[in-house]
Every structure is written in structure tokens, then in C-alpha cells.
Backbone:
């Protein structure tokens, strides 16, 4: 049963709407399966629906084209105008699935993919977690089910891990700070000359010669010579004089 | 001094983030548990809600906290970026040189920091956006969260103290702090410093206690449906002829006045505490720092909220 005022779905027999507090009449309104499909009724429907006391549904198939077209421009207004409740938007199931998917993906990205894609994976996981939170809250407001709550929990965990991994990646230093946008894997296998030099040294010491050929064409340590320049520039920008 | 707390010496967790998360989790737990009870808890004052409103109030409090968390992240980073934009624009060619040398250092310069005021404004905006999107009243949520803002902020300041950011001026008196070398803030260890972060944390917790006490709801008899009753209380309650029921009169500081008190207190305190800060890199215009400017802007906002007629 839907509240006439705000459109939230409430269990049958509830006296007051759990969302807006409006009293719900005890008489069960006639739930017509077929809506009189007139195009201008979509925009005028709030007056029409309340004046005759009928609470009409819109069938999925019949006015679907008009509703979908309206949906892009003015989602909430069209939803109320059609007599379709806010929470039971026809894509709520899609939203709930997507929110769960985003939540789980954000966890996966922040833990597993950071080793391959580095900092980028952590930032992407934060973004997905944010969208996951927004979508899962939308699902929860429509109806409290375990899918929405689990999506919310996954998104929160994903964001937290993403933030932790962002800081961890920035300050970790295992790839000596040089290739955190290639990930740890990229760093350790020859993306940066300094890392290459270090690993080569290690291999010299431990007599593993079969991989030396990969690093035979060294670059100079040009990036590292610029380090003093970098900190000087940042101090210049801050206007600090030592 | 402890910029990271390590797990088995392998996984490094930044201390500031850890302290903030602990404070935020505690705050959300306090808020949601207090929101579930009609008469509130020791930390939450309770609202005059009927049953149907109560049903969704606790979940609204939780959702508003999440929107606020997103707002904190965006707002704090955005304010830091705004505080750096004048410097970047004034030395644009230098910044381009830095960008070419090391993109990550350039991004770190522009975005690598947080400003509390940005987080505060972002949190309030986040909760407001949530309330506007789902058509939920904002002020009951604000009343629950207003005393929790300095509560969380105090935890954050303790994290600042442990991490060595937001440090104080050079100071040789009692309780001065000597930090060990920290590559994030190289000038931190040069001189002993005033523990201004601890002072701010104390000031914030004091504010939180005052606001918790102010936000309480006082009913003229204890008969609110919290399971408490006092003998003869029904005899004292006034009988309302319209609803044919006894009316319990409760008084409570209005939520917007509470928020106004917090803004008033914090902007004044922050303005004066800024003089004890020693980290100049956070943005300075002559004698006034960015946070002092924002304090001067928020002070009349707080006064306006106190004086304004209740919504």
C-alpha cells in the first residue's frame, strides 16, 4: 500500500505513513491495473488522482515509453504525477543490484587491484564506494531489505579500505615513490630505473643472472637528481624562506 | 611523532585517519542509538515524534551521517585546494615546472591536505542535501549531531598531535613538545613546540560536554514514555481538552540555536588559537590565516542562527 502524500510504500494496515507521517485511510483504494493512458495526464495527475479518490497504477508496458521519456528529465515529479510512488520506481531492483555490485567492487579494487594499478585503483574504489553509498541509501529508503543494508555496509568498508590504501600507497615507498601509478607489480618489474638498479644490485649479490638481461639498458638516475629541485619548488610556492 | 601506527610492522595506518575514524564511528553509534529511543539517551536529547516518525528517524540519522561523511571528504579537500589556488596562480610557471618534473608531487601540493572548516561545511551541506533529497526534516538531525561535531573534532586533534601536523609555535615553557624528525613536516623537529593540538582537543571536548548538557530535553514531569513514572505525576500534568489527554510540557533549546552556539564558540576559539599555530604553510594572507578568515565569516552566521526565529 502506498501513502497518497509522499508515495512511500508502507505495509498494509499501517495507520500513518512511515516517511511523512500522513494518516493513511483505512479504506483500501481500488488498485486498477490499467491506467487511462493519456499523455497530458502524466503531468496533471496529482490533481486527478486525488480528486476521484482512485489510486491508479501505471502498467509497465502501456505507458512505459512516456514514463521512461519523462524519467530522464524530471524523475521525482514524473514519479508523483503518474501516481507511481517514489520508492517503487521501476528500476529499484536494478539500483539495489548495482549498489551491491559497486560496494563489493570497491572492496575488491582497494585490496586486490592496488597491486596492479596502484594509486588509481584506490581512488576508483573510493569513487565507487561513494556512488554505492548513495544508491544503497536510496534502496533503503524505499524498503528495508538485506540487500540494501549489505550494499551499504560493503560500500562503507570499500571507502574505508580505499582511503587507507591511498595513504598506504602514497607513503609506502616500496617502489620508492616513483611509480605508484603503475602499481607495485609494475614497479618491481622494471618500470623505474632506480628500482631496477636496486633490484639489479640485489641480483648481483645473490647471483641470479638469468634476469639481468631485462635490465641491461639502464636509464640514469635523472628523476632522483631532480628531488632537491622539487622540494625547493614546493617551498618557493609556499613562500617560505629558510 | 607517530605518523603511522603499524600492524605487525607491515601495514601502516596513518594515525590522523585512525583517530578520526574512531571518533566518527563513536559519534554515529551514539547518534543512532540515541535516535532510536524516544526520550533519547545521555548524549541525545530526544524529540517530540510520533510513532511513525520515529520509525524512520534512526535510519535517517545514519544516512545523513554517511552523506555528511562524503561531504567532509569533498569539503576538506576542496578548501585545501582553494587555499592553495592563489599561490599556484601567482607562481603558475613554477607550478608547471613542478608538474612536468613530478606529477604526483604537484598533485600532492594542490590536494594533499585537509582543512577542518571545509569538512564542517561539507558535513552540514551533505546532511542538508540528504534532507532535501528525501524530504526529511533537517533540524532534529542537526540537534543530534551538533554536540557530536566538537566530539569528533577533538579526536581528530589528538590524531594531529600524534601525527605531528597542525603544530604549534616555537615554545620553551612548560609542557613543550619535541617532535622527532618527520619527513612530512620537516620543520617540525627544529624547535620545541607548543602543544596547541592538545589545547584545541581540550577546548573541543569541553564544548562537546557543554552542548550535550544544553541539548537535553527537560520535561516538567518524568512521565514521558521512557518507562519512568513518578507518583502523582499525572496529577500535575495539564489536561488538554482538545486531545483528551494529559499534556506533558517539555522544553528544549532549539536546534538552530544549538548550532549557532557551536559556531559562535568555535569561530571565536579558533580565531585566537590560530595565533598559537606554527605551521605557516597552511595558507596565509599577511597576518591573517585562511582559518581566521573563515572564522570571521562563520561568526556572524552563528550569531544569526541564534537570533533568528525558530524554524
Residues:
Amino acid at each position: 500500500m502506498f501513502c497518497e502524500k509522499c508515495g512511500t510504500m508502507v505495509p498494509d494496515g499501517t495507520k500513518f505513513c512511515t516517511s511523512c507521517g500522513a494518516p493513511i485511510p483505512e479504506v483500501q483504494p481500488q488498485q486498477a491495473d490499467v491506467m487511462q493512458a493519456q499523455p497530458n495526464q502524466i503531468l496533471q495527475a496529482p490533481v486527478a488522482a486525488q480528486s476521484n479518490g482512485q489510486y491508479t497504477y501505471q502498467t509497465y508496458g502501456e505507458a512505459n515509453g512516456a514514463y521512461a521519456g519523462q524519467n530522464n528529465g524530471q524523475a521525482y515529479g514524473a514519479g508523483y504525477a503518474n501516481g507511481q510512488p517514489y520508492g517503487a520506481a521501476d528500476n529499484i531492483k536494478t539500483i539495489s543490484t548495482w549498489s551491491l555490485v559497486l560496494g563489493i567492487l570497491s572492496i575488491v579494487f582497494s585490496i586486490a587491484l592496488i597491486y596492479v594499478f596502484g594509486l588509481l585503483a584506490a581512488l576508483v574504489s573510493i569513487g565507487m564506494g561513494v556512488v554505492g553509498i548513495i544508491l544503497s541509501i536510496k534502496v533503503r529508503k524505499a524498503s528495508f531489505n538485506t540487500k540494501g543494508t549489505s550494499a551499504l555496509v560493503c560500500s562503507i568498508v570499500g571507502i574505508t579500505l580505499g582511503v587507507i590504501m591511498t595513504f598506504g600507497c602514497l607513503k609506502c615507498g616500496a617502489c620508492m615513490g616513483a611509480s605508484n601509478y603503475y602499481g607495485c607489480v609494475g614497479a618491481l618489474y622494471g618500470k623505474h630505473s632506480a628500482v631496477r638498479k636496486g633490484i639489479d644490485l640485489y641480483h648481483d649479490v645473490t647471483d641470479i643472472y638469468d634476469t639481468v638481461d631485462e635490465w641491461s639498458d639502464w636509464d640514469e638516475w635523472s628523476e632522483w637528481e631532480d628531488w632537491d629541485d622539487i622540494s625547493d619548488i614546493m617551498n618557493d610556492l609556499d613562500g617560505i624562506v629558510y | 611523532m607517530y605518523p603511522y601506527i603499524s600492524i605487525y610492522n607491515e601495514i601502516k595506518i596513518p594515525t590522523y585517519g585512525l583517530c578520526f575514524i574512531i571518533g566518527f564511528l563513536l559519534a554515529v553509534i551514539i547518534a543512532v542509538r540515541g535516535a532510536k529511543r524516544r526520550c533519547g539517551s545521555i548524549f541525545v536529547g530526544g524529540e517530540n515524534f510520533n510513532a511513525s516518525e520515529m520509525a524512520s528517524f534512526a535510519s535517517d540519522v545514519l544516512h545523513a551521517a554517511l552523506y555528511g561523511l562524503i561531504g567532509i571528504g569533498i569539503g576538506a579537500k576542496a578548501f585545501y585546494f582553494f587555499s592553495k589556488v592563489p599561490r599556484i596562480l601567482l607562481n603558475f610557471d613554477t607550478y608547471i615546472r613542478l608538474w612536468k618534473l613530478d606529477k604526483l608531487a604537484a598533485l600532492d601540493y594542490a590536494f594533499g591536505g585537509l582543512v577542518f572548516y571545509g569538512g564542517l561545511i561539507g558535513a552540514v551541506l551533505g546532511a542538508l542535501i540528504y534532507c532535501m533529497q528525501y524530504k526529511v526534516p533537517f533540524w532534529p538531525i542537526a540537534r543530534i549531531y551538533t554536540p557530536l561535531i566538537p566530539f569528533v573534532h577533538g579526536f581528530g586533534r589528538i590524531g594531529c598531535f600524534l601525527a605531528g601536523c597542525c603544530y604549534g609555535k616555537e615554545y620553551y615553557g612548560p609542557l613543550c613538545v619535541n617532535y622527532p624528525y618527520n619527513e612530512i613536516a620537516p620543520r617540525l623537529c627544529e624547535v620545541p613546540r607548543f602543544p596547541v593540538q592538545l589545547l584545541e582537543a581540550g577546548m573541543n571536548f569541553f564544548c562537546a560536554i557543554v552542548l550535550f548538557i544544553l541539548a537535553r530535553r527537560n520535561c516538567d514531569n518524568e512521565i514521558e514514555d521512557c518507562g519512568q513514572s513518578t507518583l502523582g505525576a499525572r496529577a500535575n500534568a495539564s489536561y488538554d481538552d482538545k486531545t483528551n489527554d494529559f499534556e506533558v510540557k517539555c522544553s528544549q533549546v532549539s536546534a538552530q540555536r544549538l548550532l549557532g552556539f557551536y559556531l559562535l564558540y568555535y569561530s571565536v576559539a579558533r580565531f585566537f588559537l590560530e595565533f598559537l599555530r606554527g605551521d605557516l604553510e597552511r595558507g596565509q594572507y599577511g597576518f591573517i590565516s585562511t582559518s581566521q578568515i573563515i572564522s570571521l565569516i562563520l561568526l556572524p552566521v552563528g550569531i544569526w542562527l541564534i537570533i533568528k526565529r525558530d524554524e
About this structure: Chain B touches chain A at residues 4, 11-14, 17, 21, 50-53, 55-56, 59, 63, 66-67, 70, 87-88, 91, 94-95, 97-98, 101-102, 104-105, 108-109, 130, 134-135, 280-281 (CB under 8 Å).
